[in-house]
């Protein structure tokens, strides 16, 4: 799995705060994912303090790792 998908998968399973070590280390990848609409800080029409994977991001990760949708609790 490439770096982009690995970051999406990690955020999918563990939504990350903006200032977490993971978010800081992967800032460029998270910025790219946000610009592509694969992650967002808005969940249920409410601004949050962490990154969440969107349904478009979930579809992308599920394409690379079929079945991951079944273990996800919440997506944007």
Structure description:
This protein has four helices and three strands; from the N terminus they run αβααββα. It is α+β, with helices and mostly antiparallel strands and 76 residues long. The chain has a three-stranded antiparallel sheet with strand order 1-3-2. It is globular and about 30 Å long. The termini are far apart.
Question: Mind sketching the topology for me?
Answer:
Elements: H1 3-13, E1 16-17, H2 21-25, H3 27-35, E2 39-43, E3 46-53, H4 55-64
Antiparallel strand pairs: 1-3, 2-3
In the sheet with the most strands, the strands line up as 1-3-2
CA-based shape = globular
Low-confidence stretches: none
Amount of helix: 40-55%
Through-space gap between termini: 23 Å
**Helix and strand element order:** HEHHEEH
- Radius of gyration, rounded? 11 Å
Record field, number of beta strands: 3
Mean pLDDT: 91
Largest sheet: 3 strands, antiparallel
Q: Which structural class do the helices and strands define?
A: alpha+beta
Q: Keywords, please?
A:
alpha+beta, 46% helix, 76 residues
Give a brief description.
The protein contains 4 helices and 3 strands; from the N terminus they run αβααββα.
């Amino acid at each position: 799995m490439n770096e982009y998908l690995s970051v999406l998968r990690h955020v999918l399973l563990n939504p990350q705060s903006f200032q977490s070590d993971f978010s800081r280390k992967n800032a460029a990848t998270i910025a790219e994912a946000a610009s592509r609409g694969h992650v967002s800080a808005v969940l249920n029409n409410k601004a949050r303090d962490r990154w969440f994977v969107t349904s478009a991001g979930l579809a992308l990760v599920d394409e690379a790792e079929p079945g991951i949708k079944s273990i996800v609790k919440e997506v944007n």
